Give the backbone structure.
Amino acid sequence: MSEEPPRAKSKDPLHGVTLERIMTELVAEIGWEELAYRIPVRCFLYDPSIKSSLTFLRKTPWARLKIEQLYLHSRRP
């Protein structure tokens, strides 16, 4: 049997990080109010929940991009 060559590591800093994890960590760190201030969308402003936010973000690429950028920015050393 031949061995598989080692896989190259992904250069994507979000590789392996789920959208649910991103949202959970951001809400824990900055809270819904600050999240709504930074990205003013209804699902963060009115009766926010992780579930409703995930539904919205999966359908709205521009908002997901903003969330991902905010998450990456919050992880900088």
Summary: The CA atoms of residues 30 and 64 lie 17 Å apart. The chain is about 60% helix and 0% strand. The mean pLDDT is 90.
